[in-house]
Amino acid sequence: MNGATLFGLCGAGLIGLGLYGLICHPGALRKVLAFNLIGSGVFLLFGAIARRGGGVLSSAGTGIDSDPVPQALVITGLVVAFAATAIAVALLLRLAETTGRTTLDPNGSDPAPPAGRKEA
Amino acid sequence: MPLYPLVSGLLTGLVDLGGTLLVIPLMLPVTGLLLILAIGGRYAGRIVLALLPLGLAAAAAVVAAVWETGDALSYQLGGWTPRLGVALKADGLSAVLLLTSAIVILAVGVYAQRPFRVPQGLSETRTSLVFWLLFCGVWGGLNLVFVSQDLFNLFVALELLTFSAVPLVSLDGRGETIAAALRYLLFALLGSVLYLLGAVLFYGTYGTLDIALLADQIARVNPLPAAVIAAAALMTAGLLAKTALFPLHLWLPPAHAGAPPAASALLSALVVKASFFLILRIWFDLMPVLLTQMGAQVLGALGVAAILYGGLLALRQGRLKLLVAYSTLAQLGYLFLVFPLAIGPGAARSASLVAAPGVLTGGMLQLVSHAFAKAAMFMAAGMIAAALGQDQIRKLAGIGRALPITVLAFGIGGLALTGLLPSGAYLAKTLLDGAAAESGQWWWSLAMQAGGLLTAAYLIRVFYHALSGFGEPPVLRARPARYQELVVLGLALCSILLGLLPSAMLALPELGRVAAVVTETP
């Protein structure tokens, strides 16, 4: 197994974990974090594809094997994911301020409140 | 007649402009955003109002240019050619959608002048400023989706659209609309990250993101690599979540019903169509080879489920805006019947895509007619709700006499949705029915008829209450401005008169893409 395959598999694992969290966790903050996990997996996969080579530069005969294009795309993707997270967290904060809940289910509550809060 | 040479001269001038024309619909919204930020919220509405007719002219010019040349317009950003560069392209499909969205956005922009006016004595209000900024964002995102030819550029366009559309939902800041916006955002983010994963797999397999180049390479490979099939599945699933097709629809009704009426009109008429347009692009342009019987039947079945489920739930709603939102769910289902009808059973795939040209036109007609009708209905429902202070369907009695033009506009929009004779939906259903009969798939026309009945049923409920009440008309809290009522009526009329288009115009969605499909034959 070479490096690119290993990183590709890691990316797939992250995407799987994130997908599970996004669908199964009721807490909205966890869903946002899970989305970020999927995003990291996708970017890792993109990095692995860049490392594997065979992109525009190598096919143009420049002698450079690894591919710089995915880097540009990953940077754009990171900015977009950051903006998405910011909007989601802002909405979540406002939701908690106005209604006092942190889940999307009107009757439910986040099943795992932070342990430290009760003691404080 | 001196008019004809003038018009034809103008058209030739536009055609000479060629692909550069595509930059204008992208520049205008960005100009609007920058001007609003520079000049301030006081004049935001007027700045947008000044730009909207220019956008309509640019969209009409794109349609004219595509129509005149009979081919797609294309433009390469910065002169860089794809693989590395990013291309813009407008074929018949893009041109139709550009024009439709330009008309709807113009109408919504005129309508929203009043609810988002800055009161006398204030320099700017937050709601008004944010609304007009997001309005420009939605406008730009839509135009970018319609003309992009690069999978990653399309991802950015989709995100621009989502980030502008989501805050529109929670503009009034009530807890329930914030929850609706958050739910919408989470669905949309899942959709876009799956789409991005698909795009990454495409890049990893073929080393390019340009749709035309990818289509060319995919058509030559047999059998397809597993990564491409996975990418297609991931992208479709992601886009279905954004389009709110049946099992992924949970976010749509609260979001569309909770937003301010002008925003609901944009979201329901246009924003969900952008992701549907991408599904069409992926399956018809990128890889028609992969559109198998099985996949197409599944998409069609989901569409039917949406038609029936959305229709039944619309029938049970107590609030007018929720009814209109569930009706959107049902009407989106019709669009997905395009997939099974485009490939007849047993026929050679690429051949049948050419052989059933009415299907794509039918689907586009349904999309355009729904966009006009639904925008009109949401804005009319908004005026009714503002006038009565509530929008319970049971308490609409007498509104037909108090606000005749508004109720007329709502009614005409509704009749256009049910597919009454001169409407675009009528023509769409005729074309789709014809394709169903031709390919022996009678069950799809059965579903369409059932959907039409359900549409009529839930609208009759509204008409019954709105037109009843012979006593004193209800006391109105606020009367809509006459221009608002006329704009909404105009949109509804666009929808119901769409069926009167000359039949030559119906070839427009096919322009610039038939050649691409023919070359798919191995």
Q: Could you characterize the architecture of this molecule?
A:
- The complex is a heterodimer of chains A (120) and B (522).
- Chain A has five helices and no strands.
- Chain A is mainly α.
- Chain A has a single domain (3-101), classed as Helix Hairpins (Orthogonal Bundle).
- Chain A is elongated.
- Residues 110-120 of chain A have low confidence and may be disordered.
- Chain B is an all-alpha fold.
- Chain B folds into three domains: 1-147; 149-261 and 269-290, no CATH class; 315-522.
- Chain B is built from 22 helices and two strands.
- Chain B has helices at residues 3-17, 23-39, 44-69, 92-111, 126-147, 151-169, 175-206, 211-220, 226-243, 252-258, 261-286, 293-316, 320-335, 338-342, 349-355, 357-388, 399-402, 404-418, 424-438, 442-467, 482-497, 514-518; strands spanning 73-76, 87-90.
- Chain B has a two-stranded antiparallel ribbon.
- In chain B, helix 7 packs across helix 10 (252-258) and helix 18 packs antiparallel against helix 20 (442-467).
- The longest helix of chain B is centred in the middle third of the chain and has 32 residues, at 175-206.
- Mean pLDDT of chain B is 86; it is low at 347-352 and 514-522.
- Chains A and B meet through helix 2 and helix 4 of A and helix 6 and helix 7 of B.
End-to-end separation of chain A in angstroms reads: 50 Å
Report the major sheet of chain B: 2 strands, antiparallel
Number of helices of chain A: 5
- Termini distance of chain B? 50 Å
Shape of chain A: elongated
Per DSSP, what share of the residues of chain B sits in E-state strands of 2 or more residues?
under 5%
What form of chain B results from the Cα inertia axes? Answer: globular
The percent range for strand residues of chain A is: under 5%
* Annotation, overall tally of beta strands of chain A: 0
H/E order of the elements of chain A? HHHHH
User: How helix-rich are the residues of chain A, as a percent range?
Assistant: over 70%
Q: Averaging pLDDT over every residue of chain A, what do you get?
A: 81
CATH top level class name of chain A: Mainly Alpha
How many domains make up the coordinates of chain B? 3
The CATH architecture of chain A would be Orthogonal Bundle
Oligomerization state = heterodimer
Q: From the helix content, strand content and strand pairing of chain A, which structural class follows? A: mainly alpha
CATH-assigned fold name of chain A: Helix Hairpins
Question: Which radius of gyration of chain A do the C-alpha atoms yield?
Answer: 19 Å
The number of helical segments of chain B is 22
